[in-house]
Amino acid sequence: MTSPIPTLSLVDTDPAELAVDAIVIGVHSVNGDAADGDGGTLLLASGAESIVAAFDGRLTGTLALLGATGAPGEVTKLATLGTITAPVVAAVGLGPEPTGAAPPPETLRRAGGAAIRALAGAGTVALSLPLPDDEDAPAALRAVSEGALLGAYRFSGYKTKPQPGRRAPVGAVVVHVPDAAEAAAEAEVTRAEVVARAVAQTRDWVNTPPNELRPPEFADAVADAGRKAGLDVEVLDEEALREGGYGGILAVGLGSSAPPRMVRLSYTPETFDKRVALVGKGITFDTGGFSIKPAQGMWEMKSDMAGAAAVTAVMLAVAALKPSVAVTAYVPMAENMASATAYRPGDVVTMRNGKRVEVLNTDAEGRMILGDAMARACEDACDYLFETSTLTGGQVVALGKRVAGVMGTPELCDRVKAAGDQVGEPAWPMPLPEDVRKGMDSEVADISQVNAGMDRAGHMLQGGVFLREFVADDVPWAHIDIAGPSYHSGEPTGYWAKGGTGVPVRTLLALIDDIATAG
C-alpha cells in the first residue's frame, strides 16, 4: 500500500488571512547590509508582501535574531501571536535573490519539501513562495507542488509501538497562486498529485524489507497495481520464462527458493505515433551470489530493485495522465542468492536473443536479467527504449550519489540529460568505448559478462557495453544507471526522505511527455 500524500489545492486569498496551521514564505540571503530597510540581514521573497506588512517591518529582523540566514532549504519557524491568521510562519531559505527571475524550479522544489517536512504535526500548511507571472509559471508551480508533496513522505515502517515525539506528516497543502481557478494551474495540481503518488509508491517498494518482497510477491504487487490502474498485464512465471528462453533471468534466479518472474505492463491509447519501452532491474535482494558482497552495507541491497519499482510506478502514472504515446514496461525480477543450485563463475548462459554469455562474476547479475527483458522489448517493436537500474558501483565512483550515468544512443542520452535537468534528477551522458567492448571478448562464448581479465577500469561502462548487445540495431536506447541516486542513506534533505528516493520516475515521465509532444 502506498504511503499517503497530503491533499493539494490552490488558493488566491490574501496569505495573511488564510485560516491554516502554518504559512510558508521564502527568504533570500543578502550580502552586506540589508536592503529592505527593516534592520534585518535578509530579504523576503515575493509572495510574502502582506505578511511583511502585518509584522510592521519587523519580520526579517526577528527571523535574523532566530538564526535565519536564507541558506537554501533552511527553515526558521516563528509564532505569529495573532499578527496574521495562521499561528505559525515558516521562512524557508532560497539562497541569494535571483537577478530578474524567480528562483530556479529545483530551488523551489527543495524549499517546498524542506518546509513541509519541518512542519510535521501541522494539519494544513499554505505555501506562499515566489511564482513568476510569465511562461515559467507552470514549471515553478509544478516544482513547489511536487516538492511539498514529496517532502511529506514518510515510510510507515514496522515499529510495534508509537515513537514518542514523532509528529504526523502534514495532511493538507495549499499553494497560493494569483488565480486559483486558472485551468493551467489546476492541471499542474492534478499532475503533481499523480507524480507524487508514483514517487511514493516507488519509495515504498524500495523501502520494503526483502523478506516481504521476494520475486513472486513483488510480481503479484506489480500485477495487482497494474490491473487496478487499467493496464494490460502479463506475468511470466518460471515455467513461462523457461519456455520463452529467458536464460539470463533464470540463471540469476537459480540460487533462490523464490523463483524469478517477469511482468509486462502495457498502456495503449486510442491514437498514438510512437511506442516507448521501459525496462527496470528487479533484483529483490542481491547477496552477490558466489561472488558474495561484503557484509557491511549489504542490507541496502534490498534497494537493488529500484529500477523495477520506478518503471512500474511510471506506468501507474501514465495510466492516470494518459499521454498520446504507447508505453510498455518490462520488469524482470530475481533474487541473487548463494546456494547449491546457484549459477557459478564459468557458466555459459544462453540469453533470450540467442547470444551466449560467459559468467565471470555472479555479482554482475543485473545485466543478465536486463539483457533478456531488453531483447523482448525490441521483439515487441518500440521506437525508444529506456532502461534503468542500480547496475554498478562504478556509477557512484564516477558521478557520486546524485547524478545518474547515461549510456546508449547519443541523441537519446542528451534527451535524458535534458529531462533530468528539468525535473531535478541530474544525469550525465557517458561513452561506450570499443576498447571496453574488446575487453569483454570471451574465448568460449559470444561475450563475457564483465571484463575477461576482471579489470574494473570503466566498470560502469562495461555494464552499458554489455546491455548494448541486446538492443536491436534500429532502436534508439538509453541505459540510466541509478546505483547512487536511487537510495539516500543520509538524513532527509529537500524533498528526499531517508531510503528510496523515487529516481528516475520524474525523468521518465518528462521523457514520455516530450515524446508525446515532439516525437
UniProtKB/TrEMBL annotation:
Cell wall biogenesis/degradation: present as a keyword of the record? no
Its gene is pepA
Question: What catalytic reaction does the record list?
Answer: Release of an N-terminal amino acid, Xaa-|-Yaa-, in which Xaa is preferably Leu, but may be other amino acids including Pro although not Arg or Lys, and Yaa may be Pro. Amino acid amides and methyl esters are also readily hydrolyzed, but rates on arylamides are exceedingly low; Release of an N-terminal amino acid, preferentially leucine, but not glutamic or aspartic acids
Q: Where do the catalytic residues lie?
A: K293, R367
Residue ranges the record marks as coiled coil: none
The protein's name in its UniProt record: Probable cytosol aminopeptidase
Q: Which UniProt keywords apply?
A: Aminopeptidase, Cytoplasm, Hydrolase, Manganese, Metal-binding, Protease
- Relay the cofactor remark from the entry: Binds 2 manganese ions per subunit.
> What are the names of the required cofactors?
Mn(2+)
| Gene3D superfamilies per record | Leucine Aminopeptidase, subunit E, domain 1 (3.40.220.10), Zn peptidases (3.40.630.10)
Q: What is the enzyme's class at the highest EC level?
A: hydrolase
- Say what the protein does: Presumably involved in the processing and regular turnover of intracellular proteins. Catalyzes the removal of unsubstituted N-terminal amino acids from various peptides.
As given in the record, the signal peptide range reads none
Entry's Gene Ontology BP terms:
proteolysis
- The record places domain Cytosol aminopeptidase at 361-368
Q: Which InterPro entries match?
A: Leucine_aapep/pepB, Macro_dom-like, Peptidase_M17_C, Peptidase_M17_leu_NH2_pept, Peptidase_M17_N
Native source species: Phytohabitans houttuyneae
Please provide, alphabetically and separated by semicolons, the GO molecular function terms listed in this UniProt record. Answer: manganese ion binding; metalloaminopeptidase activity
Q: What family does the database annotate?
A: Belongs to the peptidase M17 family.
